[in-house]
Automatic annotation (TrEMBL):
Coiled coil regions, renumbered to chain: 137-194
UniProt keyword annotation of Coiled coil present: yes
Disordered, as annotated region: 1-77
Coiled coil recorded as keyword: yes
Protein name as catalogued: DUF349 domain-containing protein
Highest taxon above the source species: Bacteria
Compositionally biased region (Low complexity): 28-46
One of the Pfam families matching this protein, by short name: DUF349
Biased composition (Polar residues): 1-22
Keyword entries, A-Z: Coiled coil
Transmembrane stretches, start-end: none
Species the sequence originates in: Bifidobacterium crudilactis
Length: 487
């Protein structure tokens, strides 16, 4: 059995002309070939037929039952294919290819029509592969490597195919498909070039946005928001990789290097900012802890005015210290606020107590005002002396009473001052009347005026000019008025 050769996927022809199925190739049992079940896809290989030896052809072939052929092809197509073949008496099937006959297989113990039907169907199957590939070439989804693989498979299929049909037409169709495939590959290459240019432009936009973000970094940068923007751009980059045409490695690497550099620049700047922020927050924490220590040291003070100013100064220092981080700030502020509340609550309690006392003091001082105002009016020097003595006692008692509510201070002080001023006005008038120096000054001025009036009288009598007389008389009248006042 050394010279046994395979003829088709369905059966094997031995050197003696025996047909052996793949399932029982080791024994001498004979089976009929199976009918094709479906149309093959482009690129699928077909097993090549081999011409049997004369001894095999001369060997008597066992009788086998012919298969029942189930076809999806029209009978006209099958009959047309069968015109290119024949079957001899031994069941050998031949095909006429370019004017030459070639044996394509053997179908013993079957009618010639049945044998030709099988190989005609195989031809139509092969032709269907050509038709399918031609249709596939019109698709926008086909890839260049698929075109090459399909053409390679079809070339193999038309090299002495074990079929009965117009093989020359298939070879001619192959040439036509090769031209169509070349044009399709050119179109695909142009489309890919255009798509790649578009993809590069789209990805460049993403890169430029990242570079603009990196170039805009400053002290006022919102780092969280900018990080979100970089994250969004990276997501866009990944989505673009998945959804767009694959960019050539050189271009893709160059764009990624730019994008990565921009993101690295941002990360380094944010890291530096974070380090500076941590240092500032650490310093702020130290300053605030020192402020808290001072606040806790004075929280028990009862020197309300001075300590209030000290707490106000500590608050200004607190604001100037900066932030120590949200969690740290909240804890530190709680401690500082507790110390301040201790002092200010104590001060408020003292004020509440003082307010109650001040209201009592107001009632007492208003009662004294009634006594003081009862001293008026004062008409002469003697009643002024008595009123002054009584007012002095009232004022002593007034000072011992203490503070009154702030809103009432001006009102009651004004009333007491009014009493004092009226008594003082009478005292001043009495003093002026009994002042020796004032009397001496008054007498001297009277003598001067009397002398001046006498001179003016003499000048008027001696003057003849009416205008001058009128002026001297006006001066004399004014001095006479002064003399009346001081007498």
């Amino acid at each position: 059995m050394a010279d046994e050769t395979a003829t088709t996927p369905e059966n094997t022809v031995s050197a003696q002309g025996q047909t052996v199925s793949p399932d029982n190739a080791g024994d001498s049992a004979q089976t009929a070939p199976a009918a094709p079940s479906s149309t093959p896809k482009p690129g699928a290989s077909t097993q090549k037929a081999h011409v049997p030896s004369p001894a095999a052809l001369a060997r008597k072939t066992p009788q086998v039952a012919a298969p029942v052929q189930q076809s999806t092809y029209s009978q006209d197509d099958v009959d047309a294919a069968k015109t290119f073949g024949r079957v001899d008496d031994q069941g050998n099937v031949f095909v006429n290819e370019n004017g030459n006959e070639r044996i394509v297989g053997q179908f013993p113990n079957a009618q010639g029509t049945e044998a030709l039907d099988l190989y005609a169907h195989r031809y139509l199957d092969l032709k269907a592969k050509f038709d399918l590939f031609e249709t596939r070439l019109k698709s926008s989804e086909i890839k260049a490597h698929e075109i090459d693989e399909s053409l390679k498979s079809l070339k193999e299929d038309v090299k002495e195919p074990p079929v009965v049909g117009d093989i020359a037409a298939l070879q001619s169709a192959l040439e036509s498909l090769q031209h169509q495939a070349a044009e399709k590959k050119q179109a695909l290459a142009a489309a890919r070039k255009e798509a790649m240019a578009k993809a590069i432009a789209e990805r460049t936009v993403i890169v430029e946005k990242a570079e603009n973000l990196a170039a805009s970094l400053s002290e006022g940068t919102n780092w969280r928001s900018t990080a979100d923007k970089f994250r969004s751009l990276f997501d866009q980059w990944q989505q673009h990789q998945r959804s767009s045409v694959r960019i050539e490695k050189g271009e893709a690497d160059a764009l990624w290097k730019r994008f990565s550099s921009a993101r690295t620049e941002f990360n380094q700047a944010r890291r530096k900012w974070a380090q500076n922020r941590d240092a500032e927050q650490s310093k702020a924490k130290q300053l605030k802890e020192a402020i808290i220590k001072e606040a806790e040291s004075i929280q028990g003070s009862t020197d309300w005015g001075t300590t209030s100013h000290e707490f106000n100064a500590l608050m200004d220092r607190w604001k100037a210290a900066g932030r120590a981080g949200r969690n740290e700030d909240d804890a530190l502020w709680t401690r500082f606020r507790a110390a301040a509340d201790t002092f200010f609550n104590a001060r408020q309690a003292d004020r509440d107590e003082m307010s109650s006392n001040e209201k009592d003091n107001l009632v007492k001082k208003e009662a004294l005002l009634v006594k003081a105002e009862a001293l008026l009016p004062v008409k002469d020097e003697e009643s002024a002396k008595q009123a002054r003595q009584s007012l002095a006692k009232i004022q002593e008692e007034w000072d011992l009473i203490g503070y009154v509510p702030r809103d009432d201070v001006h009102r009651i002080e004004s009333r007491l001052d009014k009493v004092d001023k009226q008594i003082k006005s009478v005292e001043d008038a009495a003093w002026k009347q009994s002042d020796p120096e004032a009397d001496a000054r008054k007498s001297s001025f009277e003598v001067q005026l009397t002398s001046q009036l006498a001179d003016l009288t003499a000048q008027i009598e001696a003057e003849s000019d009416p205008k001058k007389i009128k002026a001297l008389e006006a001066e004399k009248a004014a001095k006479e008025q002064w003399l009346k006042v001081i007498k």
